[in-house]
Amino acid sequence: MSENKDPSVWQGFKAFLMRGNVVDLAVAVVIGAAFTNIVNAVVKGIINPLVGAIGTKNLDHYSSCLSSACEGEQGIRILWGSVLGAALSFVITAAVVYFLMVLPMAKYLARVEARRRAKEGTREIIEVTELEVLKEIRDELVAQRGGSGHDAR
Predict the structure, then answer these.
(1) Which of 62, 128, 146, 148 is most buried (CB neighbours < 10 A)?
(2) What pLDDT score does 101 carry?
(3) Number of neighbouring beta carbons within 10 Å of residue 65
């Protein structure tokens, strides 16, 4: 009984792994991890120094006190600077990904699609032109035979 189940379980697992979306997802995760290094390098090496030239690079020290005495570890602090820093980091990272990666790739894919459509349009024109030439040849042959070829169809 277990002999029948083992091959089917193995075959099911193999089919699961070989499905296109599982392999595509694995590739996307690996590429995404490598891509993260590029984005982080751009943000740390270019964007953060530019932001630091305007203000401070580290917003973690900004906070507000909810209680009357906030000295040392006492009191209730709201660390709004770290939240603001994380939000700015997200927006900057999203902008870098969009403007340096997504937008150029979308433009490239649009150009490739336009070329493909133009090539298909040229094929259709050639096919229509060939069809027209063949019709003209047929009509000319029919005319040379004196119209008797028209009835043979």
Answers:
(1) 62
(2) 80
(3) 13
At 135, which amino acid appears?
Answer: K
Which residues, other chains included, contact 75 with Cβ-Cβ below 8 Å and sequence gap of 6+? 65, 66, 67, 68, 69
Confidence of residue 54 (pLDDT cuts 50, 70, 90): confident
- Phi, psi angle pair for 148, to nearest 5°: -75, -20
Beta-ladder partners of 77:
65
The pLDDT-based confidence of 126 (bands split at 50, 70, 90) is confident
Residue-level length of the chain? 153
Residue 88: what residue type? Answer: L
pLDDT at residue 95 greater than cutoff 80: yes
State the Cα angle at 103 between 101 and 106, rounded to 5°: 105
104 vs 19, residue with greater confidence: 104
Alpha-carbon distance of 113 to 48, in angstroms, equals: 37
**Cα–chain-centroid distance for residue 24?**
13
What helix, strand, coil percent values describe the chain, rounded to 5?
80, 5, 20
